[in-house]
Amino acid sequence: VGCDRSKNLVDICGEKHFQAFVCDALSVPIRSGSCDACISIAVIHHFSTAERRLATIRELARLLRPGGTALIYVWAMEQEYKNQKSKYLKEKNGSKNKDKEMNTGTAQRPLSDQGPDNSSQDSSWSDQLLNDLKDGDCGAKPVADFRLPVHTNRTSFHSQDLLVPWHLKGGTKKKEESVDTVLVPGGSKESQELSPVFHRYYHVFCEGELETVCRSLDCVRVQKSYYDQGNWCVILEKL
């Protein structure tokens, strides 16, 4: 059974006769302890605060039966690891990329910062984690104001919190929509056309950050933590 924030993507699942529904990762309408396994791929890095990222993992753990496992993937700050460039860096602009999110014909705006109430314990823990990350050497530059940097596609990250441009391919833009547009390079002027660009929020994770968040929960243990093609990954077991 799958779930997604995007109704358009869930509709595609329905057309392919898969079971899927629309929901929020912070509140999944499934009974506690009813899942043998859960996966969360490229979801948690879209949540804008440490509290919300922690709450998402706690919700994932709630769904698992004791002994059940969860696999989590998030985008890594380190796109070059152990002297190896990630596939993301290797695929330059203009090459044929197979990013599913870019080819679905849908674009999503960043989520608002309205979320569920969090306990003071979670808040103090996230503050400590934030301080630890600031003290660490992750290569991230501190943000001096509330404006997020816009990332240049297929390049290394210079900030953990940023906006990634998503070019809507083959879509039509409504007149009332207010989105940026870019000139898509083509073989001739006649083949060039304007495409809307959506800036999507990401928090890219430093080495050890995802594992640290998971270890703060008493209900799970980290079975494995690893790096995979520009992503930090963990496998959790429900206690």
Automatic annotation (TrEMBL):
Keyword terms, alphabetized = Methyltransferase, Transferase
List each copy of the Methyltransferase type domain by range: 1-72
Q: Name one GO cellular component term.
A: cytoplasm
Basic and acidic residues bias (residue ranges): 86-102
Q: Which InterPro entries match?
A: AlkB_tRNA_MeTrf/Diox (IPR051422), Methyltransf_11 (IPR013216), SAM-dependent_MTases_sf (IPR029063)
Q: Which residues form the signal peptide?
A: none
Name a biological process GO annotation: tRNA methylation
Composition bias, kind Low complexity: at what positions? Answer: 117-126
**UniProt cross-references to CDD domains, sorted A to Z:** AdoMet_MTases
**Pfam entry (one):** Methyltransf_11
Please list where the region (Disordered) is annotated. Answer: 86-126
One molecular function GO term is:
tRNA (5-carboxymethyluridine(34)-5-O)-methyltransferase activity
Name the record gives this protein: ALKB8 protein
Q: Which organism is it from?
A: Rhabdornis inornatus
